[in-house]
Design goal:
The protein is an alpha+beta fold and about 325 residues long. It is built from 12 helices and 10 strands.
């Protein structure tokens, strides 16, 4: 077990707190991958040799330091690879690291539904379940040729490897400043799709306003839906063009949400992350000659000036796009 997946239990999706917490992880290893708004992967292979402690023992030290220095608790999953660590995190609890040893991976995966595997979406899971491959254990036992006929040559091979515990992923150090994130938690587990969409509208509006304030545009948008059972689904979509336009972000967020096909899902929180940030001056805008779109953009400019003069609460994010 050399990889940790750490989720910091921030009071809210306060992205400003994440760099300091990443710095805490970097005291143990330089190989840290930020997963905004509140998580990170850390490769501790070198740290285990240097400190003479296992990854699980180092996880306990990280938890204590996060509490002592930042007042933030965390949940931690540990595994031999990023995929296993992420899946272990779903079963982790505060104060206890969920660790999956390399020789336990196949058993750990076997009884889980196929949709629990990172990268397996609703459509792929539905196809597999139609053929009785509803658990990762059954997928692992299925012939590779069968999986390739069902989901394609490349996807079938990756699915077969992952279900058998083969994790070819690696931790890629990155910069948290390359993304902006916001989260909308619900006061209770929320089943109403209408409230889900309103949360998306508000989150997309906030991201657009923050991007424009920084003179940035984003190239892709990531939606994370957290459920009552502590599991989560994450999907990313590349935007047609780099943008900071709240209406465009909202349309993409709605598309990501609808593609999940959630039915009576008990949702605890919804998060959006704008990725691939770049300077707005380097981005081009495709003219649409749509009077409604141009009007919305002018309203955004007025709202941005109001926020700059009177503060962020002068105009509530998410009220400019439907």
């Amino acid at each position: 077990m050399t990889i940790l997946c750490v989720r910091f239990q921030l009071p809210s999706a306060d992205e400003a707190a994440l760099p300091a917490l990443l710095g805490l992880l970097e005291e143990f290893t330089p190989v840290v991958q930020a997963l905004p708004p509140d998580a990170a992967l850390a490769d501790l292979r070198g740290a285990e040799r240097y400190f003479g402690r296992t990854a699980v023992e180092l996880a306990s030290v990280i938890r204590v330091r996060a509490l002592a220095l930042h007042g933030v608790d965390c949940v931690i999953g540990a595994g031999s690879g990023p995929m296993t660590a992420r899946m272990a995190l779903r079963e982790a609890r505060p104060g206890l690291t969920r660790a999956v040893a390399e020789d336990e991976v196949r058993e750990f995966l076997a009884g889980r539904p196929v949709v629990a595997l990172p990268g397996v979406g609703t459509k792929t899971a539905r196809t597999l379940c139609e053929y009785g491959l509803d658990t990762l254990g059954r997928v692992a036992a299925a012939p590779l040729s069968t999986l390739q006929r069902l989901v394609g040559a490349r996807a079938g091979r990756e699915l077969h490897e992952k279900a058998n515990g083969v994790d070819r992923g690696r931790v890629v150090p990155n910069a948290v400043s390359r993304s902006l994130a916001t989260e909308r938690p619900f006061t209770r587990d929320e089943l109403d799709p209408g409230r889900h969409r309103r949360a998306l509208l508000s989150a997309a509006g906030e991201l657009g306003a923050r991007l424009r304030a920084l003179d940035k545009v984003c190239r892709s948008l990531t939606l994370t839906v957290r459920y009552a059972d502590r599991s989560a689904t994450t999907r990313t979509r590349t935007l047609p063009e780099p943008t900071a336009h709240s209406a465009a972000l909202t349309r993409t967020a709605y598309g990501l949400y609808e593609a999940l096909g959630l039915q009576r899902a008990r949702v605890r929180a919804i998060a959006l992350r704008a990725e691939g940030l770049d300077a707005a001056e380097r981005a081009s805008h495709q003219l649409t000659f749509d009077p409604v779109d141009e009007k919305v953009r002018r309203i955004e400019e007025v709202a941005d000036r109001a926020r700059a003069k009177f503060g962020p609460r002068a105009v509530m994010p998410g009220t400019l796009a439907a």
